[in-house]
Design brief:
The chain has about 250 residues and is an alpha/beta fold. The protein contains 10 helices and 15 strands. The protein folds into 2 domains: about 55 residues, Winged helix-like DNA-binding domain superfamily/Winged helix DNA-binding domain (Arc Repressor Mutant, subunit A), CATH 1.10.10; about 180 residues, Rossmann fold (3-Layer(aba) Sandwich), CATH 3.40.50.1360. The chain has a 7-stranded parallel β-sheet, sandwiched between helices. The longest helix has 15 residues. It is globular.
Length: about 250
Amino acid sequence: MSQTFRHPEILEIARKDGKVTVEKLAEHFGVTLQTIRRDLSDLADAGRLDRVHGGAVLPSGTSNIGYEDRRALNADAKRAIARACAAQIPNGISLFLNIGTTTEAVAQELLHHQKLMVVTNNMNVANILAANPDCDIIVTGGQLRRADGGLVGPLASETIRQFKFDIAVIGCSAVDSEGDLLDFDIQEVSVSQAIIRHSRRTFLVADHTKFTRTAPARIGSIERLDAVFTDAQLPDNLEKAFEGWNTQVIRGL
């Protein structure tokens, strides 16, 4: 069977199951793993799928992909972004880290920082930083989102309003062509807005896929942020907008 016939069926399986794996597709079509990897790469290049470790998932439109798939998606890029971001975070400050797999990668890069006070609404971030004995950790409270360990809702926002952070590191689900930060969960949006209001400086960590996705709820404009850490060249209109807003773009290598 040629790829012309495989591609539509791969997409149909992805729509039905939520994801596809290289091994199962190879068995299904009776072709090699390498052939399926090429098929998935072609579909990803065409924007029909997002590659994850061992397979692919449908691109996110009005619903987010699963946490484990998000963690695996562009993992190397997220680590590079996290290293670049952590390099801009000095010792001895107050810091907020919000929900997201890239902010969790930033937490991993902060394990050797000293005299940090970290506030977070991400249970995974708290667990990662527990390994740093020179880091005080405060968890916001709020409604637990079991899918990803996030804490959302009014209690999380109320805790944030008790602080003024030196730096906040935030993620989002998408960034549109006008430079607006977007998300899927309206409760998370209100928490992110509170974080930005109560931080002296705010950094966005977002790999290149966030600039090709969409989500329904608006957090605010990147105009409010101090820096964007990403892994690729951004669209020209956004690069120019960021320059006009004095929002620095730093690429992880």
